[in-house]
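User: My notes are a mess, but here's the protein and pyridoxal-5'-phosphate's SMILES. Can you give me a structure?
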Amino acid sequence: MHYYSLGKNSPNVDFRTAAITGQAPDKGLYFPSNIPKFTAAQIERFKTLDKASLAFEVMKPYVGGTIEDASLKEICAQTINFDFPLVPITENILSLELFHGPTLAFKDVGARFMSRCLGYFSKEKKANDRNSNLTKSTEDNTTTNPTTVLVATSGDTGGAVANGFLGVEGVNVIILYPKGKVSPIQELQLTTCGQNITALEVEGSFDDCQAIVKEAFMDFDLNEQYNLTSANSINVARWLPQQLYYFFAWQQWVAKYQDAQGNYPPINIVVPSGNFGNICAGMMAKASGLPLGHFIAACNANDVVTRYLSTEKYEIHKAIATVSNAMDVGNPSNFVRILEILENNFPSLTKALSSYSIDDTITKATIARVYKTNNYTLDPHGAVAFAAAEIYLANLEKANRGSNAQYNTNSYSAIILETAHPVKFPEVVEEAIGQTIAIPDSVKFLLDKKKVSTALAANYAAFKTWMKERK
Ligand SMILES: *Cc1c(COP(=O)(O)O)cnc(C)c1O
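Assistant: No problem, the inputs look usable. Here's the predicted complex:
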C-alpha cells in the first residue's frame, strides 16, 4: 500500500510519511493506491467481531506495515474505547451517536488515531537517531525536533485534537480559535489541557484563524524550524479511521434487522457534511466491501456539493455562517477524494450519493419538533441530517410506490450520524427545546478548570512573532 497525491505531481509515499506531512508537496491530498477489498467470508465474520479487533483489521491494510501489529492493535483499541450506540428516533430514522468520546464530538476518533500514530512514529525516529548516533561520529549529533501540529478551529476540531494529543511525546499542538465564537464547553476543552497543548485566542473570525494557519504552512522558514503539520481531515491518519463508524453502525443494524436467511434492509446513511471527510470515509468503507446502501450528504446553506449533484457545476464560495457551524465550509477539501473513489464518473456519483441543503429555520424547527414528538434532543448538525433524511425517505417512497413488492417499511429507513452532543451548542438547542441541557458527567470536571490562553491579533505577522519568541 502506498499513497499518491491527487495533485498527481508528487512522489508516492507510505502511510508514515503521509501521516507526518499531512499534505503532498504539490498541495494535493493523499489517496491510497488500492482500496482493500474484504471478502464475503471476512464480512460475515465482521458481523460479530469485537470493536477493537474489527478496527485493527480495517485499519491494518491502510497502515501498510509502517506500524507493527502489536502497536497498531493497541492504538486501535485506545482509539475506540467508548460507545457508538445506534438509537431509534422514529420508526424509520435511527441515530448513530458519535458523541460519546472524551470531547463529545465525532472528531475524537480521527484525532485519537492520528495522535497515537504520530506518537509512535516520533518514538521510532528517536530510537533510530539514537542508534545511528552510536555508530556515527559525535559531531553528527542531530537532535530530533518535535513535530508541531497547527490547527484552526471553529470549536469541535480543536477540542478533539487537544484531547487526542495531550501528553503525546514529541508532538506540540498549537490551536487557534476565534475569541468569543466558541461555546463555553468548547473553550474549556481547548484551553485547560496544559502540557504540550497551547491555545491562541485570536481577535477575529474562524476564517482569520484559518488564514494564519494556511500562511504558516507556506512559510518555508517556519516549517523548517518547527516541522509543522496539520490535524485537519486532509491527513490520512485522521480521515481513514472514520470508516469505523460505518462498520459499527452496520454491525448494530445487522444484529437488529437480519432475518433467518441473513438478509437485512438496505442501510441508507445520512451524514452531516462540511469538509466531506466523514462521508468520504463511509464511501471508502462501502468500496472496500461493507454492504451499505445509499449515501446522503446533509448540508446547511453551504451547498456547493448539493448544487454540483444537480447541475454538474462545482462552484466554491465563501463560507456562510449558520447554526451548524462545524459545517460552514465553502470549498470542501475532501470532495476530490469522493470523486476519486467513483473514478470521476458523474453518473456513478449521482447513483451513490444524494445531497440536500437545509436552512437554519428548518434546522431549529427540526430540533424543536423532534424533541416534542420523539423526545430526542438533536444537536444542530444532527438536525440537518434528520431533516435531510426525511426528504430522502419521502422521495424514495414516492419513487417506489406500488412498483416493488419486496420493499417493506424497513426499506424506507435511514441512519443519521449524530456528530456532536447538543450541550456543545446550548444557545441554539436550548432555545429550540425550551429547556436547559444537562451537562454530561464526563465533561463536568471541566467546569472547575481555569482557562489558559494567549491573546493574539488576527494577522500572520503577530503569529510569527509569537512563534519565534515563545519558549
Ligand atoms: C466536523 C463536523 C462535521 C463535518 O464533518 P466533515 O467530515 O468535515 O464533513 C459535522 N458535524 C460536526 C459536529 C463536526 O464537528
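The longest strand covers residues 171-178.
User: Great, I'll file this with my notes.
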